[in-house]
Design brief:
522 residues; alpha+beta; Immunoglobulin-like; Purple Acid Phosphatase, chain A, domain 2; 2 domains; 7-stranded mixed β-sheet; 7 helices; 15% helix; binds fe (iii) ion; binds calcium ion
């Protein structure tokens, strides 16, 4: 749950690529139909209306994405035929020195999206890329490969973002993010919101609450029409993961929020996952199969940083105590409860054990640190959609960090539409217990944090001594500069999300020194 309701304290809660022809998509679960390849490629309108993107960088490759959509808000506007899309990768921004090129098919089965897994590139360098269909060419995007696994890496700069409710404001954060010197952007979820149109904000959603595949496609397309978001995708490779709103608020595994049969929700989740894949620069290994999709995965920047990207929605047990912001019932301590599922948890622990990187990043959705929203020592008030509702699962992770001591664990988090810095304690109920890691929680790009909830959070800071920083007033992103010796997080915030001329500034900066878990003010 993010804190989106204005009456939070009332506990109310809603709850490969050169092969063409018939064999091309063989074995892909989503793509079952055969379509003729269109020789004609004249479109009703410019087909690259949703821009270009790249993502999931490896030392020798990156995924390139685009979607043909001459009529993006109304199903895309493409004939029910396959189209040949050409792509090229160059080492210069004018696309003169092309080093890789090929063709791929845009199929109606995947909304004429393309995901090109380019390999054979050199590590740790910039590339530019462009698509062409018929005589139409896309914008030129820029991307960067991950650092070599064999050479020492001296620095990495990335930013992380989350929660970009279209209706609540403009993407002024992205307007400034494109000016940053970054190697990478990490998106931690709530890329879209599923709700119907609401009045009062600067812009509205394009349909009632989304349920069908066509609904989800049109919603992703709406978001992707934003020029600032397109510019941010065209400027850097992204690593994405989802939270709840890519499907529905506070869903857990196959359990919907409310008012739906489980069977209807299984279909809805399949629709949402497919549309998500279609609109993100994801590798073929993430292609959904029905209502399931492999999104947790790992990226290594040599000996400097490794990113463990989690999915804490698809496999979690239901929120305890009927969800909400409330005192914890016994269910919140259930040893069988899980955020990640057993398999993903084991994958995480194995990865942390085998890692040879200085900084071990856990990129995930909801706040890991405990936060008791009740300032009174006599009663607790916890956000049960966060790890605070999954205490035993959190203890397994924190105990692992304490016992196995992976190098410099740093958790990066979204969901809560506000900025936080936490020391991660092996036991939050014992303030003197060991600090085993650091958590940076980034604010939203646009999504609302109710102003009347800022004071109550601040009032409870004293009883949460592991929390080093909180701000609820500002929207933006977190810029992270890593060297072997030091991690610095700068909380970059925009002056406004309703004024397109907003400025950007640094609200606060925190550092983690190598070998010393916990954050210090810079
Ligand atoms: Fe959100
Ligand atoms: Ca969320």
């Amino acid at each position: 749950m993010e804190l989106i309701d204005s009456d939070l304290l009332s506990n109310r809660c809603k709850r490969r690529n050169f092969l063409l022809g018939a064999g091309f998509f063989t074995g892909l679960a989503v793509t079952s139909q055969w379509h003729p390849v269109s020789a004609k490629s004249r479109f009703s309108n410019y087909p690259f209306s949703l821009g270009v993107a790249s993502g999931d960088p490896l030392p020798d490759g990156v995924v390139l994405w685009t979607r043909l959509a001459p009529d993006p808000l109304y199903g895309g506007g493409m004939p029910l035929r396959n189209f040949v899309v050409q792509w090229r990768v160059a080492v210069d921004e004018k696309m003169k020195k092309v080093v890789r090129r090929g063709k791929t098919l845009a199929s109606p089965d995947l909304a004429h999206s393309v995901h090109v897994d380019v390999r054979g590139l050199e590590p740790d360098r910039w590339y530019w890329y462009q698509f062409q269909v018929g005589n139409e060419v896309s914008a030129i995007g820029r991307t960067r490969t991950a650092g070599s696994l064999f050479n020492s890496i001296k620095k990495l700069n990335f930013a992380f973002v989350s929660c970009q409710d279209w209706q609540n404001g403009y993407y002024t954060a992205y307007q400034h993010l494109v000016d940053e010197e970054l190697d990478l952007v990490v998106h931690l979820g709530d890329y879209i919101y599923e709700y119907g149109p609401e009045s009062g904000g600067p812009r509205q959603h394009n349909s009632p609450e989304i349920v069908t595949l066509n609904d989800y496609r049109n919603r992703h397309a709406l978001y992707k029409t934003d020029k600032n978001l397109q510019a941010a995708h065209a400027a850097f490779p992204w690593i994405v993961t989802w939270d709840d709103h890519e499907v529905e608020n506070n869903y857990a595994n196959l359990i919907p929020e409310e008012n739906q049969s489980q069977q209807a929700f299984v279909t809805r989740r399949a629709n949402a996952y497919q549309a998500y894949y279609e609109h993100m620069p994801l590798r073929r290994s993430s292609l959904p199969s029905g209502p399931n999709m492999q999104l947790y995965r790992r990226f290594t920047y040599g000996n400097l940083a490794e990113f463990n990207v989690l999915d804490t929605r698809q496999y979690r047990t239901d929120q305890p105590c009927d969800d909400g912001l409330k005192p914890r019932c016994s269910q919140a301590f259930d040893v069988n409860a899980t955020m990640t599922g057993q398999e993903q948890q084991q994958w995480l622990f194995d990865g942390l054990d085998k890692s040879r990187s200085r900084w071990n990043v856990i990129a995930q959705q909801t706040m890991l640190a405990q936060y008791d929203f009740n300032p009174s020592p006599d009663a607790g008030l916890f956000n049960l959609d966060q790890w605070d509702g999954y205490v035993a699962a959190r203890n397994r992770l924190l105990s692992f960090l304490n016992q196995r001591q992976p190098s410099n664990p740093v958790v990066i988090t979204g969901d809560i539409h506000s900025s936080w810095v936490h020391d991660l304690k092996v036991d939050f109920t014992k303030p003197a217990s060991a600090i085993v890691g650091t958590e940076f929680v980034g604010t939203s790009v646009t999504s609302d944090f109710p102003t009347n909830f800022i004071a109550p959070v601040q009032a409870a800071l004293g009883s949460n001594p592991h929390t080093k920083f909180f701000d609820g007033a500002f929207r933006g992103y977190v810029r992270c500069n890593l060297t072997p010796e030091r991690w610095q997080s700068d909380y970059r915030v925009v002056s406004s999300i309703v004024d397109l001329n907003a400025s950007v500034s640094t609200l606060a900066s925190f550092v983690v020194e190598n070998g010393q878990p916990g954050a210090q003010r810079a």
